Amino acid sequence: MDGTVVLGGPGAGDWTGGVFTLLVKRQLGVSLIYYNSPWRQKEPGRKPAPVELSSYMGYSVTSGHYHSTNPNDMMYVGGAPHANGVGRVVLFYQETGGYLKYRDNQIIEGEEQFSLFGFELATVDLNNDGYDDLIVGSPLHYEKSRAGGAIYVYMGKAGGITSGSKPVRITNEKESEEECAMTTCTESRFGFSLSPAGDINLDGYQDLVVGAPYEENGKGAIYLFHGSADGIVKKYAQRISGKEIDPTIKTFGHALSGQMDLDGNGYDDVAVGSYQNDTTYLLRTRPIVHLSATLKVLPAKFNLSQPPDCVIPGETTKKYCIDLKLCMSFTAKPLNSFNTPQSILYTIEIEKGVSKKRALFVNPGGTIKKSSTKLNQQGVEVCTTEKIKLISSFNDKLTPISFTVDYNLLDIPYPELSQCLSSGVPDINKYPVLVTGMDQSTTLLTKVNFSRECGANDICESNIQMTTDLLNLTL
């Protein structure tokens, strides 16, 4: 089977540099055939190199289908971080059996002097439209006297990526100066390393991981960005600090490699290099659990027009009562391989935020109840019922009584690195995380009205009428 390998040669032509494609063949007598981009300033019969001397073209390389969804229509990209002082990225195409060529509008220039635009490259289809997207690292990017690095995201489309394409730029600026000072973000070199992460959260969109190996005084950190229908989500989904893994760590995030499921749990993992520690760390992705919950009330209303009929052991008088039924279930991906039982913690509160409560739990009393339940299998609903009683006397019989439920997975701390080294790698499926965001709420709210005998819609409306008549008065 034939395959193409893309290599960079930044030292070619007095460090002009070039990009090489190697067509590897397993046929007898042929080991490999290579083609190169122009790397000389003057080359008979060919366009000159797209960069000048000492540009380091090929310092980074990648390839993808940026302008076509045809799997045979590949383009090759080389980064030249020293070109023209600002850095360049060049997209090359290859005619069948020919050398790599470029068009003038496929040379992308960096924005700032000495920002190392093109230092690192990655290819990811972030919006799942069939066109690959190009990510360019610029680890010395700066603006308004603040450095820290940046990445540029160029979205692939029909017609391809050109010098006129407008990228999405994401910098390493923090939400506050205090946060930046704490993480030494201005020295982080965000964008020093890049890698496709695979579909980490299994939402159908590919994700990206970015290294900032000199953040936090050289200890390093990595950032995970999700893809979406609109492309990259600019706010990172997760930041992993190197010092949280190993207090002695240095340059965590210097190199990255993702898009591989090494432990076979259905989720892609990420390998992170820390060259000053001579160590590679494997970050395994924990399974993602979706929780579903419903809250139902029976009867649906408090009917105070009828005598109370709820008998409570130990109480001499009958009460007005309702049953509050909470049902929960979970799903996780992959559906056919994840069936680790899940322990759920939940809190039910009556009239949250109200000082004078009108209802109580029958057992054990009070207005807040904390408990737990266990879900043994995906898709199998487990229910629990709580009986609620009205207090004996209160004035407000118009405002509904609210019930709030907050729930979450039982958090089982993952073992420390030292424990893993001594007792072996733990089963990652025992440490799932709950999916969060717009499509997953962990709070339920329901309200119970009082029956007001105000018609079918139970909405009471004033119907005050007045008639007048003039009297035959004589002054």
Automatic annotation (TrEMBL):
GO terms for cellular component: external side of plasma membrane; integrin complex. Residues 285-452 form the Integrin alpha first immunoglubulin-like domain. Its main location: membrane. Signal peptide: none annotated. Keywords: Cell adhesion, Glycoprotein, Integrin, Membrane, Receptor, Repeat, Signal. One of its GO terms (molecular function) is integrin binding. FG-GAP repeats lie at residues 103-163, 188-234, 238-300. The keyword Hydrolase does not apply. The keyword DNA-binding does not apply. SUPFAM superfamilies: Integrin alpha N-terminal domain, Integrin domains. SMART domains: Int_alpha. Gene3D superfamilies: Integrin alpha, N-terminal, Integrin domains. Chain A, domain 2. GO terms for biological process: cell adhesion mediated by integrin; cell-cell adhesion; cell-matrix adhesion; integrin-mediated signaling pathway. InterPro entries: FG-GAP, Int_alpha_beta-p, Integrin_alpha, Integrin_alpha_Ig-like_1, Integrin_alpha_N, Integrin_dom_sf. It is a single-pass type I membrane protein. It is found in: Membrane. Belongs to the integrin alpha chain family. This is Integrin alpha 6. The lineage of its organism: Eukaryota, Metazoa, Spiralia, Lophotrochozoa, Mollusca.
